[in-house]
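User: Fold this; tokens only.

Assistant: Input:
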Amino acid sequence: LLPHAAFFNLSRLEKYLDDVLTIDDFEELYEKKGVDFHVVATEVDYPRKAIFGRHRSPWIGTDEDDFYRDRYLDNCTISRAVRASCSLPGLFAPTEVDGVQYYDGEIKKVLSTHVAKEHGADLILVSHTFTPYIRNGNMGSIAEMGIFSLVTQAIYTILYQKIQTPKEAHIQIKNLYEYVESEEFRRKYRNLSREERSELLSDIAEKLDFNPDLKYIFFPSPNETFFMDHFNMLPFATRELINSGYTVAQEVLPMHGLKKLPEYEEQGILQRRGLKRFR
């Protein structure tokens, strides 16, 4: 096993996407559909991310370039970019793009929400399966469920904390921003004029890279998702994950004031197809 990078490769996934996608080019997708789509992977030989899409970082190949700086790249089809992003090390072999090897986009940083933020998004929906198991009376302890469940719990706990850190930072900066806007701040620093307060808010937003209009919605994973087969790409396995995510979205989105499109008010996307679940 030592000479081989992994047990499997994802060439068939790439071929499948190439066959079913009506548009397999990032630029064409934007021009025809208005979708500025990005796929994140990680370079194997350098500790930096590749953000595949229709953009290219202008400083690539200049003195500003270095081995740690993440870069936007436009040299890849959508199907190959997805293959690279899904190449989980050890399980699936890395994917080559223009002589450079790439693997899983989560390696350097879990969830690349900054990509949407950098392109002016004011609402970012974050869905993932990295929620640790929460013990309840029906299921018992992870320690009793075998080594695979125990290792998965440890990994998910680490990843979940990495997800929470930027989320908590955004909340802290937002609290600071709202405090400067508050009546309490005005009373305490009454010598500041309205223009000076406005300038202070602008400085906070600029220095801390904060967008006061940006909102994140995180979709938690239920306990059942923890025990699903995340690395199985056969239809019966992926179907369970899709249905779980769909159910959670149905519950979470209305809590944030998001409503269904009028055409789906009476019947949801599943009901309109005569289904109770995705199949």
